[in-house]
Structures are given as structure tokens and as C-alpha cells.
What we know:
By secondary structure, this protein is mainly alpha-helical. The chain has helices at residues 2-7, 21-29, 36-68, 76-107, 125-131, 134-155, 166-186, 190-208, 210-220, 227-249, 253-265, 274-296, 309-326, and strands at residues 160-161, 164-165.
Amino acid sequence: GIFASSLLFFPKIMQGPIEKPNVIFPQFREEKRFNYNVVAEGLKLMLWGYFKKLVVADRLALYVNAVYDNSEYHSGITLLVATICFSFQIYADFSGYTDIALGSAKVLGFNLTNNFNRPYFATSIKEFWNRWHISFSVWLRDYLFLPLAVILTGKVKKTKYLGLAVEKWIFMIATMITFAVCGIWHGEGLNFLIWGLLFGVYLTIANWTLGFNKNLRKRLGISNKSISYRVYSILITFILITFTWIFFRAENTPDALSISKSILSLNGHLFLDKTTFFYSFTGLGFLIFIEAKREFGQAYNLPFKIRHWFIEHLAYASLAIIILLIGVLDGGQFIYFQF
Length: 339
């Protein structure tokens, strides 16, 4: 009964989070009692999730879909802006769903695992996957990467191949297989496989050049704890991730390659509807501001944590009004429902 209940628990049935039995099963055995503060926190979290989905993701989708669905008619600069917008669209869409799922579960007295931890503030691809779809990343690590690494370690006798430590080769093989599976899991097209393999390549290069990068920073006198280096790392990581989203969003591989080629040329004029631009980037700017505040200040489960209860409740009331006024209420389903 408990297994069936956890499997069919509606907040997480479509997109996760993927909960381990030792985390979710005991919660079904507990007696649930009404708790005003817990219910209020759950509703606030759901409201923030709806803001992400309806005000940010679905607004950005209007522009992204208009460009990507007619990519052959758009310039390189327009495709670049649309790709950056898609990076934020898919994050707001997926993390918005997660907030709604966590919030609705909390209203019922359940605590689910947070699937997102401000992934675009990651300073490396490895850190990105520790922050993005966390429960799925942990599943890939525990059930694919680590078993593959153990099996390969047991079969290899040499300590070096082509002058490189065998651990580096094992890491590469296990990583490439893991992310190939990750890509195929998301879709059947070759573009999804390429999307997964790109992350495998990124992680392999980072692993293989770990010592070189450390020595280079030492010689140049660059501290990896400095603010400038952190900003640089965040930007480079975001650029690398945004490039992979081209293959995720494009209809097929030829389209993805054509879009990539156009972006590199940066030709033509920027296509942008002023109304869509204003509403989209107002919502996105507010989202980034709140995320940055939580990243570099105190991180709370909720977006607003204000000492005075009236001002805090006013903030959430304003959020609800914003959703009703500029949210795309007739928008599409969540992106990850199709995978």
C-alpha cells in the first residue's frame, strides 16, 4: 500500500523529484495534522512556482517559439537572443513545476526533495548538474556512473594509457555512457543524444585538465575564490550550457547545426516584439534578482522572507496580482511533460 501510494503520489508523478524509499515511505506512515504555518508555506511556494511558469517561462516561450519554429527566416543575433531566452524558459518552466509540486506536497504534510538550487549560478558543468534536476542527477550517478566506474576499474590492469592515468579514461567512458543515456532518455532524436554527449565532453575536458588549470591559475596569480574569477566561471559555464540547449530545443540535428552556424555569424537585425520583450524581461529580471539575493545572501526555501509579517503577505499578494495581470494563462503544458 505504501509503495503504491508513493508511486502514485500526484505532486511528483509527472516530473519528480525522484524520491528514495527511505525518504518518502516513512512520511506515509506518519499521522498528518493540520498546521497553518506549513500549509501557508506550501501555498506561498506554489505561488512562486506559478510566477515562474506563467509570468517568466510562458512569456519567454512566445518569443522562443516564434523564432525557433521559423529559424530559417531569422538572423543570427535573433537566434542567439532566442537561445538565451530558452535557457531561462526551460529553467523557469521546470523549476516552477518543482516549486508547485513541493508546495502542494507540503500542504498535504509531505516534504519532497528540492530539485533545483539556482543552477545558472554554477561555476562549472559539474556544479551545474549538482544544482539542476538534482534527484535525477543523483540517480544517474548512483545507478549508472558509479557502477560503470567500478566495473571498468576491476577490468583494467594498466595504470596508464597513452601517457594518461587510467582513472581519467575510466571517468571519460563512464561519463560519456551516462550522459548518452541521459540524452536518449529525453528524446529519440539524434539531437538529444548530442545534447547529452556535449555534457559528457565538457565534464571529461574539465576532469582531464584539472591539474593544468590549477597550475595555470597559480602562475597567473588568480585565486579561484575571487569575485572576478567566480563571475567569469559563471559566465563561461552559462555559455557552454546555453549552447547545448540549441540541440535540446531544435526540431532535429540539421536545424540545430544550422542555428549554431547562424549564431556564430551574428548577422542581420534583431527581431523583437516590444510588448513581449517588456513583459518577459520584467518577469525574468525580477526572477534573477530574487535568485541572486538568495544565492549571495541568506538562502530561504521561500523567495520572500521579510521580518514584518504584513509586508511579507503584501509581497505574496502582489505576486498573485502580477500573475493575474501579465501571466500567460492560456499557455502550453510544462516542457518536461513531453519527455
